[in-house]
Amino acid sequence: MEQIVQQMINGVSLGSIYALIALGYTMVYGIINLINFAHGDVLMVGAYIGFALTGIFGFSFLPALVISMVACGLLGVVIEKVAYKPLRGGSRISALITAIAVSLFLQYGMMYFVGPESRTYKDVLPATQLKVFNTGAVIDIKSLYIIGITVLLMVLLMYITNRTKVGKSMRALSQDKDAAELMGINVNKTISYTFFLGSALAGAAGVLIGIYYSTINPLMGATPGLKAFVSAVIGGIGIIPGAVFGGFFLGLVETLVSAAGYSLVKDAVAFLILILVLLVKPTGLMGYNSAEKV
Amino acid sequence: MKEMLTKKNAMKTAGILAIYLAVLLLMNLGVIDSYIFLNMVTIGINIILAVSLNLITGFTGQFSLGHAAFMAIGAYASAILTAKLGLPFIVGIIGAALAAALAGVFIGTPTLRLKGDYLAIATLGFGEIIRIVGLNWEYGGGAMGLNDIPRYTNWTWLYALIVLTLVVISNFIRSYNGRAVISIKEDEIASASMGVNTSYYKVLVFSIGALFAGIAGALYANYFYFIKPDSFGFMKSVDILVIVVMGGLGSIRGSVISAIALSLVSLSLQSIPELRMVIYAVILFLMMVYKPQTLLSKFKSPLRKEA
Amino acid sequence: MELVKVKELSKDFGGVKAVQDINIGIEEHEITGIIGPNGAGKTTFFNLLTGIYTPSSGEITYHLNNKVSSRHLKPQKMAKYGVARTFQNIRLFKEMTVFDNVLIGYHCNMTYGILPSILRLPSFFKGEKAANEKVTELLKIFNLYDKKDEKAKNLSYGDQRKVEIARALAANPRVLLLDEPAAGMNPNETNELTKLIQWVKDYFQLTVVLIEHDMSLVMKLCDKIFVFDYGHLIAEGTPAEVQNNERVIKAYLGGDYVAQA
Amino acid sequence: GCGAKASTADAKTIKIGLNYELSGNVSTYGQSLVNGIEMAFKEINDKGGVLGKQVELVKVDNKSLTDEAANVSSRLATRDNVVAILGPATSGNVKAALPPATENKVPLISASSTADDVTLDSNGKVREYVFKTCFSDSFQGITMANFAFSELGFKNAAILRDNTSDYSKGLTVNFTETYEGLGGKIVAEEAYQAKDTDFKTLLTTIKASNPDVLFVPGYYEEVGLIIKQARELGLNVPVLGADGLDSPKLLEIAGADALENTYYSNHYTSSDTSPDVVAFKEAFNKAYGADPDAFNALGYDMAYMVADALERAGSADREKLKDALAATKDFKGITGTLTMDEFHNPIKAVTILKIEGGVPTYFMKQEP
Amino acid sequence: MNGSSRPIWEVTTLLKLNHLSVHYGAIQALKDVNLHVEEGEIVSLIGANGSGKTTTLRTISGLERKSGGEILYQGKDISKTLASEIVKLGISHVPEGRRIFPRMTVFENLEVGAITRKDKENVAKDFQRSFELFPRLLERKNQLAGTLSGGEQQMLAIARGLLARPKLLLLDEPSMGLAPLIVEEIFNIVRDINAAGTTVLLVEQNAHLALKYSNRGYILKNGYIDLEGYSKDLVNNDEVKKAYLGG
Ligand SMILES: Nc1ncnc2c1ncn2[C@@H]1O[C@H](COP(=O)(O)OP(=O)(O)OP(=O)(O)O)[C@@H](O)[C@H]1O
Ligand SMILES: Nc1ncnc2c1ncn2[C@@H]1O[C@H](COP(=O)(O)OP(=O)(O)OP(=O)(O)O)[C@@H](O)[C@H]1O
Ligand SMILES: [Mg+2]
Ligand SMILES: [Mg+2]
């Protein structure tokens, strides 16, 4: 019993991290249809900013989180302007390769400055383990923070994209750039805004991951980035609740697979599920059917 | 038959032979030493990989991020056949080609329905699955890999297989099959309405592409003597894709030139480790923005009429 | 002879009944028009005829070389059966040349296999030669031969429509389906197109089915017209009959139509 | 091949090639080793060099990729005319790098590739030009199994290993064989992948199997997290590891409390008070602003060992150097006293450390 | 005849193209085009396929950039203004080929049409009006726009363009793909909104209708203005008749 409850908790905790990263991924993909491979690396930068703020300048959790979000948001805007904008309207593959280039640039640029070795976060959140009823299972209070923040950001994002003008502009832009301009939507501003939001989310995720796992390194963004992307696709990329759903789903599946003794192939299973989901529902579990009509 | 015996074809054949003999001579004279040859092997393998991926991604528009997986399958197949079972290289090559082509059918069939980025992600997932299976495959050495694979790859094999790849793929493309494949990339629904069996072609192209990637894997394993699953990871697939994109989607000649160019770039960056990847990233980015492939494309004509 | 028989054909999309209980027969060597208000289900009907959609109920039977019924309709098989089409939103292979676009149309008549193409066996050269001849002929008919090396996307709208028709004809079809061939053409160009369709139909002995909102073309060309509204067949007959049908005037043509035409 | 012109004996400097993982996914280890090596040669050069000549390092990056490792090896041997190649760091890359070295008859020495088959080919024959200066997996695995069973008296062990690392795999195999041979029981064996950060699922499973002890053959980055998360989940059994744990980072990551009851095998104790070790630590700290880890120390020792062999060889000749390396005997380094055995593996004592209050302290020594 | 029935001194030029040229790479699509639209007019732009009609409209609304000349709107040069800003100045463009947002519902498409507007109550009224004009859209309110039939999409595009409440409406082939009945309705709507104060620049293949409903017209040929004049004169011009009205 204890084991089952504990594993569920492990799954949800892991899933919440995927979900948090997936939000930003989905956001950017949803608007400019770019698999932003650099998302995970913006997260890494966010983690280092958080590290510097808490570890060196002695900031506490909340200000560090907010500053890191803003800084990453700005970084995202700059990345878009410098790297992606010149390729707008070009081929998808070129854009994808550019995203990979940005990813490498951030990874190794950071490595050049801080070295390849990992750094350790100070404990800025209480390192308390809460007992879950009487089962003997425990949950890390940091997990609760992450889950809470993920859900909060999800609701906020949903509100922004579905209810606000900016959100509608983003969606219109994603579907037809010229037509959106003709409606009075400023393409550059809207894309910048999207990147700001998406990258700020990565910044938040970076700080939280840094705090949760306590170690960070310049290559830390790659794997969770990929997993989060898989989550976003499973949930239906571009769909905000889909990303969160996908994140939790993937977290739980990985945990269950590991718990069942197949930890070695858990990533393979994750990808297998991804492929299966795509086969059954090519636009993800919560995705729209494509609206192409002949 | 007379079409085959045109002057142009004769010239081509003579050119191909001349290159072969010239390199052979230079090797015997010691002008091409082991280091140069090693780089030639790398370039040759990259050419085969890039041209075969170009068939899938450049010509057919099937976005694949898992090409290295087919190479891995070929490499392991050949390694096992030649090293563990002690069979001759030709068996290794054929085994590699067949195993990889089979994998191509295996991944091509279910992912038929997927388009664009979704296909890219599915193939990425496929690549990872292959890698993870490799890591856990005791017989294949798991994470420790396989070593002491006999070195059979020599200039003759390398050159013959490069030529084979180029001839097969370019002849395929310059036939009605090739046109069908290109039309799928342009507009799948219209293509189907013209009677192109899109499913068949997609799977076919995946397996032809995989077949040659498998051959590349065999050349790799039997030259570099040691393989492990991580040698064929996501970044390897990306590297191949970069060659293809830089050379120009749908340009075989471009793939060849860019395989050579990128290998040289990589070599020249070896000695500046601290900034190697940063510079590489910047180069990638500049290439995507300034598109040197448009220069190449002036020379290309994938659909040149033959008859 | 009835070449296509449509029985009780319906297609729903969720709640939308795009096509409902359609019964139609299409005669060989005739030009059949499908008209009706926007959203009446005409394009959907074409998509059913070409296997892009599967019917919710009902049946389509082709009496071509073989009898083919709707269960066996698949987009990529239609050309082989002898049915070719064009699209309401032009779907050319944009980056390919005009010549290659039409060459793809010939695809289903190609017989040499993969091996001959890789080994460049004589059958390859024979097949390619026949294809090139056919395409050249078509391009000349459509007055597009001097544009054969242009990329399709660089052509004007009207020329693109013509390339689409030429591409469809390259398949050597017996039935040609045209979805709004005159859309985006001015009256002059429409006149030319009208003549061209008539000529092509006679020359290649085709059966033509077309959807069109331009009544000048429809009335001149069609032997028979079916009128759709909200997925239903509301009228059928010769142009003269349909033109004077109260229901058709009310639902589709409008009061001014007669005066204007 | 063109090994003939490779003699560097008359050059003004002695060139030594570094073929290391300086970018890519194991660049941390490559960089650590290079730091140690560079520091050592700087000291050596400051003291007048080797054979009266300065040593020139040709440092080349292999991107943590096997084909690059082979390429670099070939380049160093043929283009840069080095007298020896140091590196790469991981066994896989060493295996890829050794054919060109062998082909061109350049000695290749690795300070960190622990796999048994690095120096032995598949027929069990020694590879003439390949040497290593670190323990073999079999040695540490067996030592720790003995230690766990006989010394600490634990009968049920759980293993959590790194599935992507041959080092971890090698240790696991040897540990398991010995431990089970002694009559112990492996109650759980789970595996993760390098760069994983979340081990709670695996640890929950392991906890449920009620082990007496947890063996974690891996590197400090992951092991630090594992120990930390194990304690968070209430898995408080003693933890055993190998030299991959030796790094100040381990303490940083896991924290002193979590590390209580952790033992690992190592070449030396960084808390050692012998003057050599203290001097090394101080010098390193001065150069790099951090305490040395095992890789730093191993790189440093390897450099001195090569210098020593060159002196003994009497000239910067590849063949002579190879013979001198093979004849290394009782070479005294920071990481202990080393003698090359006939299989080009080092014979040196293993020290078992126990972490107390965050400090790895000498627990016992096991002679080879 | 709204515009021309006003006293001459009240007529102001809303839009003026002076020597406008546009290139697509090496191809020159517009050559020294001079054109003006007075406030309150309906002006039609007619020409064969590829003559540059669409290009003209796209350049006015900022989607293409000129290579020479100027575009004066209310006396100010807007040829360097962003497309999104031009909308805010009161120019709304219903593009060729509909360009609706396929994965948004019909309703959301309309909302985006009014995205720059701040007058909430009026927007609500205009929504009402859109649905009165096109009852089909009301029926399909929550359908994804991409699945609408061709004609329905065209209606949506027009309705969406009107929701910006423009001073100047640019229409690119509004009748394309529409049923005859609807075509007429559309032109009546154009006339109505024109009467209510919106100036219209109309590109149309159906030259009969275009000239019937407009005050003045321009004929484009290979990128330059071939002819211009009052519509009633153009209809009777032999050259126009032969080339554009089908004889
Ligand atoms: N995939 C789909 N999902 C939902 N509704 C659809 C779909 N395809 C078509 N419809 C609906 O079915 C109806 C018929 O559409 P269809 O395209 O057949 O009309 P049409 O007669 O060709 O009209 P037009 O003359 O405007 O092209 C329309 O109301 C359309 O909204
Ligand atoms: N994006 C483009 N790139 C290159 N050439 C273009 C582009 N768009 C249009 N052209 C060319 O510019 C010229 C004018 O095109 P435009 O679309 O303005 O014509 P149009 O009068 O609207 O024709 P239609 O009646 O067919 O819509 C044509 O020759 C066309 O081929
Ligand atoms: Mg239609
Ligand atoms: Mg136009």
UniProtKB/TrEMBL annotation, chain A:
One of its GO terms (molecular function) is L-valine transmembrane transporter activity. The chain crosses the membrane at residues 12-35, 47-79, 91-114, 143-161, 193-213, 233-257. The keyword Transit peptide does not apply. Coiled coil: none annotated. Signal peptide: none annotated. Keywords: Amino-acid transport, Cell inner membrane, Cell membrane, Membrane, Transmembrane, Transmembrane helix, Transport. It is a multi-pass membrane protein. It comes from the Bacteria. It is found in: Cell membrane. GO terms for biological process: D-alanine transmembrane transport; L-alanine transport; L-isoleucine import across plasma membrane. Pfam families: BPD_transp_2. Belongs to the binding-protein-dependent transport system permease family. LivHM subfamily. This is Branched-chain amino acid ABC transporter permease. It comes from Proteiniclasticum sediminis.
TrEMBL record, chain B:
Coiled coil: none annotated. It comes from the Bacteria. Keywords: Cell membrane, Membrane, Transmembrane, Transmembrane helix. It is found in: Cell membrane. The chain crosses the membrane at residues 12-30, 36-56, 63-81, 87-106, 118-137, 157-176, 200-220, 240-265, 277-293. The keyword Cell membrane applies. InterPro entries: ABC_transp_permease, LivM-like. The keyword Cell membrane applies. GO terms for cellular component: plasma membrane. It holds the Pfam family BPD_transp_2. GO terms for molecular function: branched-chain amino acid transmembrane transporter activity. Its main location: membrane. It is a multi-pass membrane protein. This is Branched-chain amino acid ABC transporter permease. It comes from Proteiniclasticum sediminis. The lineage of its organism: Bacteria, Bacillati, Bacillota, Clostridia, Eubacteriales.
TrEMBL record, chain C:
One of its GO terms (biological process) is L-alanine transport. Keywords: ATP-binding, Nucleotide-binding, Transport. GO terms for cellular component: plasma membrane. Residues 4-255 form the ABC transporter domain. Transmembrane segments: none annotated. The keyword RNA-binding does not apply. InterPro entries: AAA+_ATPase, ABC_AA/LPS_Transport, ABC_transporter-like_ATP-bd, ABC_transporter-like_CS, BCA_ABC_TP_C, P-loop_NTPase. PROSITE patterns: ABC_TRANSPORTER_1, ABC_TRANSPORTER_2. One of its GO terms (molecular function) is L-isoleucine transmembrane transporter activity. The keyword Coiled coil does not apply. Gene3D superfamilies: P-loop containing nucleotide triphosphate hydrolases (3.40.50.300). It holds the Pfam family BCA_ABC_TP_C. This is ABC transporter ATP-binding protein. It comes from Proteiniclasticum sediminis. The lineage of its organism: Bacteria, Bacillati, Bacillota, Clostridia, Eubacteriales.
Automatic annotation (TrEMBL), chain E:
Signal peptide: none annotated. Belongs to the ABC transporter superfamily. PANTHER family: HIGH-AFFINITY BRANCHED-CHAIN AMINO ACID TRANSPORT ATP-BINDING PROTEIN LIVF. Keywords: Amino-acid transport, ATP-binding, Nucleotide-binding, Transport. Residues 15-247 form the ABC transporter domain. This is ABC transporter ATP-binding protein. The lineage of its organism: Bacteria, Bacillati, Bacillota, Clostridia, Eubacteriales. InterPro entries: AAA+_ATPase (IPR003593), ABC_branched_ATPase_LivF/BraG (IPR030660), ABC_transporter-like_ATP-bd (IPR003439), ABC_transporter-like_CS (IPR017871), BCAA_Transport_ATP-bd_LivF (IPR052156), P-loop_NTPase (IPR027417). GO terms for molecular function: ATP binding; ATP hydrolysis activity; branched-chain amino acid transmembrane transporter activity. It comes from Proteiniclasticum sediminis.
